[in-house]
């Protein structure tokens, strides 16, 4: 199960704005969109998710639903992303389709180790920096925090960094052993950044392959 290296976490003040941003992200080459809207009721979120998957399916972009695993199953999204306050991944795994992916948010080495025991497909580790969407996600990790965790945590499970990441951070983040990134603001402000992020991420992949085959 291949997890794309770039995840776009949706932003927008209204469902209409969120959908417009998803459209722009997909048109700009996003491979994975994580639908997040903490302001909507479950009923409104379901309606939003049904509209979102129409867009992502058209562009063959993967859609991950944040938190609402029953909605993820209902609309046959590609997977679900669980914050630390959401349902346990082991429980969620029993309720969704076997082919759907589960990602989990972690802030510490202990968080990561706990998630590895719970049938997840990738770990979202952060926040890297302070940002408007990382207020309640734990202490800021930075490059030192990432390195401290990846040095100890030897796992084939993809580790995705999140939290205030911009194009200038990518090279340094990948050096720490983090394999991908989840970005919200830096993409919403300029959807052309998706191409830049993808280039930086694939350049890193080329470099890794070159060293592997020496």
How does this model look, in words?
With about 210 residues, the protein is of the alpha/beta class. It has one domain (about 5-210): Alpha-Beta Barrel (TIM Barrel). Helices cover about 45% and strands about 15% of the residues. The longest helix has 20 residues, at about 195-210.
Q: What's this entry about, in short?
A:
With about 210 residues, the protein is an alpha/beta fold. Helices cover about 45% and strands about 15% of the residues.
Fold topology:
Layout: E1 6-9, H1 15-27, E2 32-35, H2 42-58, E3 62-66, H3 69-74, E4 79-82, H4 89-95, E5 101-106, H5 109-116, E6 122-125, H6 142-152, E7 159-162, H7 170-175, E8 180-183, H8 185-188, H9 193-212
Parallel strand pairs: 1-2, 1-8, 2-3, 3-4, 4-5, 5-6, 6-7, 7-8
Poorly predicted spans: 208-214
Helix content: 40-55%
CATH superfamily: Aldolase class I
Could you tell me the mean pLDDT? 93
Q: What is the molecular shape? A: globular
* Highest-level CATH class: Alpha Beta
- What's the number of helices? 9
Tell me about the largest β-sheet.
8 strands, parallel, barrel
Under the CATH scheme, which architecture would be assigned? Alpha-Beta Barrel
Instruction: Report the β-strand fraction as a percent range.
Output: 15-25%
CA(first)-CA(last) distance: 27 Å
Observed structural traits:
single chain; 214 residues; alpha/beta; TIM Barrel; eight-stranded parallel β-barrel; 9 helices; 43% helix; 16% strand; globular; disordered C terminus
